[in-house]
Amino acid sequence: MLEIVKRDGLARLCKFETRSGVLRTPALLPVVNPKILLVTPKELHNEFGFGAIITNSYIIKNDTNLKNRAQTEGLHKMLDFPGIIMTDSGTFQSHMYGEVKATNDEMIEFQKSIGTDIGTVLDIFTEPYWTRGEVAESISETLERTQHACDIKGDMMINGVVQGSIYSDLREDCARKMATMNVDVHPIGGTVPLMEQYRYAELVDIIIASKKGLAAGRPVHLFGAGHPMLLAFATLLGCDLFDSASYAKFARDDRFMFTDGTFRLSDMQFLDCNCPACRGNTLESIKRMDKKSRENVIARHNLYQITSELALIRRCIEEERLWELAEIRCRAHPSLLDGLRRLKFYRDYLECKEPISRDRAVFYTGGESRARPTFYRYTKRLLERYVPSFQRAAVFTGNKKPYSKHYTSDFNRVRTAGYTPIIVSPFGPVPAELDEIYPIAQSLFPDIVDQETNEDVKQMMDSFFERMKFEEVVDENEIKAGNVEYDANQIRVRATARYQFGIEATNALFRGKIDLVLSRKTGKVRNVISDGEHILSMRANDGFYTLRPEGAERIIELVPYPKFRVVVVDDAVPYILQGRNAFCQFVADMDPDIRPMEEVIVVDKDDNFVATGRAILTWDEIRSFRRGVAVKIRSGGSEV
Amino acid sequence: MLEIVKRDGLARLCKFETRSGVLRTPALLPVVNPKILLVTPKELHNEFGFGAIITNSYIIKNDTNLKNRAQTEGLHKMLDFPGIIMTDSGTFQSHMYGEVKATNDEMIEFQKSIGTDIGTVLDIFTEPYWTRGEVAESISETLERTQHACDIKGDMMINGVVQGSIYSDLREDCARKMATMNVDVHPIGGTVPLMEQYRYAELVDIIIASKKGLAAGRPVHLFGAGHPMLLAFATLLGCDLFDSASYAKFARDDRFMFTDGTFRLSDMQFLDCNCPACRGNTLESIKRMDKKSRENVIARHNLYQITSELALIRRCIEEERLWELAEIRCRAHPSLLDGLRRLKFYRDYLECKEPISRDRAVFYTGGESRARPTFYRYTKRLLERYVPSFQRAAVFTGNKKPYSKHYTSDFNRVRTAGYTPIIVSPFGPVPAELDEIYPIAQSLFPDIVDQETNEDVKQMMDSFFERMKFEEVVDENEIKAGNVEYDANQIRVRATARYQFGIEATNALFRGKIDLVLSRKTGKVRNVISDGEHILSMRANDGFYTLRPEGAERIIELVPYPKFRVVVVDDAVPYILQGRNAFCQFVADMDPDIRPMEEVIVVDKDDNFVATGRAILTWDEIRSFRRGVAVKIRSGGSEV
């Protein structure tokens, strides 16, 4: 059972409940070789804080002694591990050695018999060099085996592995079918050769294709991924679980893992590590150790690199800056950067999970940052939802933010002459009245602009001017003088509403006389009063509205169902009226276009107003989760 | 006394000798407030490994008790610090509070009286908002005071601070005058307000301007720079010393320093640090501490971040990958990225210090990587030194490296038809015969190319084709068939010689019959024999030549002095003939165009051949250093 605690990008911090305890994801499961306990499972748990490990049931089954012990003592006792144990089934051995001597049935039953918490189907490893036909055929077999495993799994959880080699459509199709089965965890399999060959762009294709098909309510495990260099990026793409044999394998070869790569002890010129394993050591002292001690120190170093990177990843999700971390990590190797650059092909999918705003500003880390879905959404909404305030446009190129604060008198001059001030920004065109919304005001760019950004911005400006059909577009210094009267705040409140709710809902919201309540301290709009009713409040931090009950009622009245609605079951209504949050299991239907953190209207099954709030999850997620907050309720119409 | 041990970019690993011991640079000097010893100087030395600290002589002088103790016990005993102590003079106080109540004379004498190892002139802090006139005037005063300080410094070392506000020419001029004075360390001053305001592009201007003027043989101290986020970049730009009061200041405000920024304890959602200070703590346990313990833990954390970043920087210099580290670190803040992007304005200066090759491949971290001087040098040398092997060109767009290995049959086809194969690469045009030289073969790029690179490459291709005056330029698939005979290795050996030594020297080297000795194992060229003399050997790792004595003699004969020459004094000749390296103090003159790691010819004062070798330092450096290896000698003509 999975519950989302926090999200950023496609990443999520979750609680994953198993019979051996709750695992906080993202999490990495160190691979434990039952024959060689380089670092003991107990140490992995107590010293390093790993809540779960993975070991290989096929190896145990083929060793008489281990098999007997596992079946009599149980796996947890045999390995002396107090947390969650996942087992692999021999599939990777089939990839390595061509075949395994066991059936799916035998492997599932064996895993049950030794008390595995999460067992794995004996699926078929789809190699990157296989033909499409071979892949399709083997997926059918994997799906059959998975269905059978679900039938006989008993109270063991089961890994239903997504296969499909490098064929995105086959991956997505396989994932979609896995999502309908009673599996508990979704590993993405067959990816190790791609990672070994640094084919990260294809790895991105595979992960996204799988994510599209899979059920949101189950953890996704990227099988075989355990390098600290990759973890932030894979988490950003929505992977929750990882495993690593490399901490030990690399240690055997005297290789240190870092977030910027793997380095041989013999090549390293200096030891720059403060981890508990390295502390007090020098390269020389490590070189002088006997093989076993050296292997142990390096394995521990590698594990500490993993735990501290995972902690940083969790922190970045909590602080909503995982995009920044992942983009920086991807620069450790040009092939990882290829993976990052591949994301621009998936902007539509990424935009669906992109929150409406964040507490933290967008930090640009390089040209690749402009592929973030927040840029794409802005352009899309602007083109679809913006209505010019004046029929002529005056173009500004200043870059001090927020623009309306730094260019107040210029904007006045231009508007008085009957022009809409449009600022050229790395987001493309920014009408002055939208300059305070996220991410326009909440973003930082270098002053020295790269050519790609310049070109893109030019194109965006062109599309915008074409679409908006301005009578005239001139530089701010070339305007003809005029004497138009206007109210900048009135322009802003409508433009913001259109950007946030669309044109139709804005027409429903704004009627009759519009009065604005300004903040005494900042002079900024706080409340929008229409025909005497307080319909909207403006948030200072992201420039967007919170919807008031009076506003919500107007939308329900004039905008057809299901726009902006979240329908809750009757039983939940009294609780929500008391201000309790709406939980996933009580949501019956929902506008599928709602994005995370978007303002929503909670209604009952007859479309009667119940409350306003902010969506935490999207409809495909809410349908898939059995617990967790779906909508944060704004009790009695007061502000969150 | 300074000695370079290793270099990369403008960065250098040095040994800096003082009367209180040798400091390994790059080094950071923690600022010790003599009134509040948050972390004791002894701990800074023994626990954290800081070899030097900085404290403020003006504060000591103004506190009767401290003043008396410092003058009677001496500063080292008073602070109980067994390493090197630098003192500041009150200049920063004048920036903070407008004036100081002391004269330069008093401050120098006082610093001497308390046993400071490195004292500081009471220079004038040039503020970023000052007019050019004000700045110029205050520089004159600073220079006068510095000259006076040099006159009276005794056996105390002295900091001669480069000032000049944001005026690059005034900075460079000030630096040039400082270089002529008898100062020991060159701080770059007046930079704190720029760092506080994130004006990193201007900081780059200032550092480069100062570096241009300063003497290479003295350490450069970037005053007030101590954030781990900035250290790699500032080191890359040639700063050797840093200081940090922020480790303590930030700790006082409950702020944690990391390489990706500074974070408030109250904003942090997770503690992701394995440093000895944080280990065993959680955010909650730190929040529960009393103010003093908390401040101590955070200050220690901040210091550990600095020490481990410095260790990583040293490691990256040793491993010749500081460009990669600095580029990644600069992505922590868009303003730092502005600093990085500023570098393309200084490519000529940077190219002078750029080594001919490295042991490690160029890793592309983003569009900014293409501003590295290694790209610039390639384009420059190609345009100036390349001579087409065939008068028509056939363009290839494949990207598997080394090209000549992957496209052997295609290159054959094209050459047989009488065309020069030219590959389109992120370096611009690469003639097939140059595909194994550094950095063409020794570089990794993403496959997905950004638009800026595309545009640049297109322009470079155009300039190249224009310059080379090919009769025809076509796609490799559009060539007319032909039946030309050629020897690919003969083409390669001449093209490589022209690229490495220029056209004139190549004409001197290649005469009569050219025989090539190939490696039996790889089939690659190993030795070039001209008229029966072994003139050149080709290195497998970077595709360049080592010069043999016979080759060197030909260059001496036909290429006018001082090209490729390093002149050593007569006394040194016998040692060099025995294969000993040429040290700075024995070099009398040198070709100023020689780059680090370039092949050179050591001659005596009459231009007689003595030895061949590789330059470690450039002429401006050799002139300025009194010790260290200038040229690594290849004894008796055998390979290094």
Please characterize this protein's 3D structure.
Chain A is α/β, with parallel strands linked by helices. In chain A, 40% of the residues lie in helices and 21% in strands. The first copy, chain A, contains 26 helices and 29 strands. In chain A, the strands form eight sheets. A six-stranded parallel sheet of chain A has the order 6-5-4-11-10-9. A six-stranded mixed sheet of chain A has the order 25-29-28-27-24-26. In chain A, strands 17-16-15-19 form a four-stranded mixed sheet, with helices on both faces. Chain A is globular. The model of chain A has no long low-confidence stretch (mean pLDDT 95). Chains A and B meet through helix 14, helix 15, helix 16 and helix 21 of A and helix 14, helix 15, helix 16 and helix 21 of B.
Number of discrete helical segments of chain A: 26
Q: Rg of chain A to the nearest angstrom?
A: 28 Å
Largest beta sheet of chain A: what is the strand line-up?
Answer: 6-5-4-11-10-9
Shape estimate of chain A: globular
Strand content of chain A: 15-25%
